[in-house]
Amino acid sequence: MRIGYTVDGVEKVAFGGSPDLSLETREDDNRRTVRLTAKRDLTLLSYEEDAPQHLAGSRFARENLIFLNGYQSWTDSRERHFLRFEKNLLHLPKGLIDAYSFDRYGDYHFYDYDVRRVHGYDIFYRKGAKNGLILNRNYKKAYLIVEVDRRTGEVILRSDVKGAVVKAGETYTLADYMSYESVEEGMEAFRTIFPRRDIEKLFGYTSWYNYYQDISEKILLRDLEGLDGRFNLFQIDDGYESFVGDWLDVDEKKFPNGISFIPEKAHARGFKAGIWLAPFVAEAKSRLFREHPEYFKRDAKGDFVKCGSNWSGFYALDLEKKEVKEYIKTCLRHYADMGFDLFKLDFLYAANLPEYEGKTRSEAAEYAYDFLREVLPDKLILGCGATLFNAIGKFDYMRIGPDVSLSFDDAFYMKFFHRERPSTKITVQNTIYRSFMDGRFFGNDPDVFLLRDDNISLSKKTRLALLTINALFGSVLMTSDNVGEYDEEKKKALERAFLLFREAKSPTFERKGRKIKVRYMLRGEEHSFLYDTGKGVIV
């Protein structure tokens, strides 16, 4: 064990008890808990310990695979071999990173990337000569970072307790996790801890992946008309607002009559109406940023906390300010009262991108996501760009992969950038490997399928594979196509996918090299296929 902390402004390290604190460790069946009792007021910086022995070593075994759950919705998350390199930003010039804020989207601002290590969050498993699973039970307080040495196979557990304040006499949980000596046993326990929830499946339309911000009243009315009775959701995405953050300022050129027609028309067709917002951020060109700079979080240097380079660059709102929360509430309730049923809330990692005094990163996310649920108690929430464990019990649906790209792995130069970049190649694998969360944490949203032939570079086979895998492994099946333009071949493909979405049971997967074997039951019969992750096709 190693505990980092500060007392009276002095950094200290303890390898067990010390004059400043005492430790209590409890082992109960498969659960291990480590608690700290402070003898003086202290602020925690870090905690780490060795993983159980059944997970350590033996990296060279050919069959060894590890699953590393990425930091947030978009972070690549899949089974991998120990020797496989973990993508990072270490090769990029600092000037380029600063110019495009590539380090803002994931955990680069607080996790120390090293080419000798790979890492994941809150759930980890290992298959092969060493077999087992670890599950964080302390996720409301601190993320559990599981770190694997690529050279030795050794596993270290790091509890992200930075920022937690423990007063003298108080007790704080440093770590609380379940550990199992087989993946099968661990997954069975996982299903007991997180029992299946009754989640309505959504079959819907979203405007983003065809028109992006170039939407209008005419386009949406046309695409709404093309949907048939199987659909149950029509969602408007980014592009209706004047600038990100100015949610009440609808673009009058695109929508001269406002956007109240969306819930009206959707409801008339028997569909739910959905709307997109990014409630915790605003872009540099927004009126909100210009008129209310005091609403925005600043770092230790006094600079605004930038969250990325989308739009004109965008910044994190200060979620501890009463007036900021009131502004967010006003915007969300405006559209709730207009009749929207589902809120796709995006870029939620901005909730804990800044540091909040006295809170760990997990506690900051818990606070922010709880606030969203309090504001929208009667509406469906689809989270996106969020830390997944913090969404448990708060959001109805959750994106579990990066954005689908219109070419298989996006532009070639994007491969050199952050792990959260758009990529159909990555998001399909996230859909499969994070499928254990579906129906237990929330309903998984694998992002869209696309069958159209225009404005897209995905091959026909890749489009069909994307549709099939999304239908099997998610609770949300969405498209941005004008379905009314589908020919007979596309209609048949959609009919088949809708059947899988509604009736397929017990989908499972097994990695075989760069291919994944998928099995499922349909109307009493077992079906299977191989998905080639390198080519993006079913073979």
Give the helix/strand layout.
Blueprint: E1 2-7, E2 10-14, E3 21-28, E4 31-38, E5 42-50, E6 65-68, E7 79-80, H1 94-100, E8 117-121, E9 123-127, E10 132-136, E11 144-149, E12 155-159, E13 165-166, E14 171-180, H2 183-193, E15 202-206, H3 208-211, H4 217-225, E16 233-236, H5 261-268, E17 272-277, E18 281-283, H6 287-291, E19 306-308, E20 314-316, H7 322-338, E21 342-345, H8 361-375, E22 380-383, E23 397-399, H9 424-433, E24 443-445, E25 448-449, H10 460-473, E26 476-479, H11 488-503, E27 505-512, E28 515-522, E29 525-532, E30 537-538
Helix pairs in contact: 9-10, 10-11
* Cross-sheet strand order for the largest sheet: 24-23-22-21-17-16-15-26-25
CATH architecture of the largest domain, by name, is Alpha-Beta Barrel
User: What count of structural domains?
Assistant: 2
Helical content (DSSP H or I, runs of 4+): 10-25%
Tell me the Rg in angstroms. Answer: 23 Å
**Strand count:** 30
Q: Which descriptor suits the 3D outline?
A: globular
Q: Structural class of the secondary elements?
A: alpha+beta
The CATH topology annotation of the largest domain reads as TIM Barrel
User: Biggest sheet: strands, sense, closure?
Assistant: 9 strands, parallel
Can you tell me the CATH class of the largest domain? Alpha Beta
The DSSP helix count reads: 11
| Termini gap | 48 Å
User: Looking at this structure, what is the CATH superfamily of the largest domain?
Assistant: Aldolase class I
For this entry, what is the oligomeric state of its chains?
single chain
Mean pLDDT: 96
- Classify the beta-strand content into a percent band: 25-35%
